[in-house]
Amino acid sequence: MEREKIERAVFFHGSIPENRRLIKGKVLCLGSEFCPALLVRKKDIEAALNTALSGIAVYTSFLNERELGEHISALEEILKDFGDIEVMINDFGLLSWLVKKFPGVKKGIARPLSVEFMRMPYRQLSDFMSKWSLSSIETDECSMISNFPQKRNFNVYFRLGPVFSAMSRFCPFTRKISPGCSFQCKGRLDKFSVKGSRQKIYRYEKGYFSACEEIDLKLKPQRIVEDIFQAP
User: Which tens digit of pLDDT belongs to each residue from 119-144?
Assistant: First the structure.
């Protein structure tokens, strides 16, 4: 029997590299799960299309009312011309809009929202995914995948990078909640030592993370997503 192929994806934080061989044949992930200011525009999609990609996934974060309006405007412009884009969500308002306006668009649950959903009993999660036309959920915790049967009615993506621990409402660069973004975080992965411990804490955008986990391929994630940090 032929082994099921695991799809590969790269999430570029910062700029897309000039060497397009790094992303050829892979899913290209754009946007942010942790900062609404880093939203994807149509021009970003167009700039990536001259590479032989297997797909593009747009990641979105938690949103307030103003940010929701901005994301709806940007996504509507994108999805009218590029209906095969996948959208990874953290905001139920955005999900509700997508289901009504673009029901055929591929949708999934991203971190940090997925952290709690991955702990739901499989049957209840499966029902929720079906009700909201969600095709995937992403996790960076390998052990969580083993809670589900290998034959699932949705895809599980594994995030091969620092493991999510916490998120701040405050931007650590502007030290504000309100707008005024100078995009200092783009392409940055900061590392901190924990006093009195050998443990390291990682930070990018508004998220805080612990060390990476290894993936057990026997658990059969449908996609492995690798984070790459590259300053613009």
Answer: 999 999 999 999 999 999 999 998 89
Pull the structure tokens for residue 91: 């905001």
3-state secondary structure the chain: CCCCCCEEEEEEEECCCCCHHHCCCCEEEEECCCCCCCCCCHHHHHHHCCCCCCEEEEECCCCCHHHHHHHHHHHHHHHHHCCCCEEEECCHHHHHHHHHHCCCCCEEECCCCHHHHCCCCHHHHHHHHHHCCCCEEEECCHHHHCCCCCCCCCEEEEEECCEEEEECCCCCCCCCCCCCCCCCCCCCCEEEECCCCCCEEEEECCEEEECCCCCCHHHCCCEEEEEEEECC
Q: What are the pLDDT digits (tens) for 56-82?
A: 999 999 999 999 999 999 999 999 999
Instruction: Kindly report the pTM of this predicted structure.
Output: 0.92
For the chain, domains (ranges, CATH) are 7-162+213-230 (3.20.20.70)
10, 77, 172, 184 from 110: Cα distances, Å: 15, 22, 22, 23
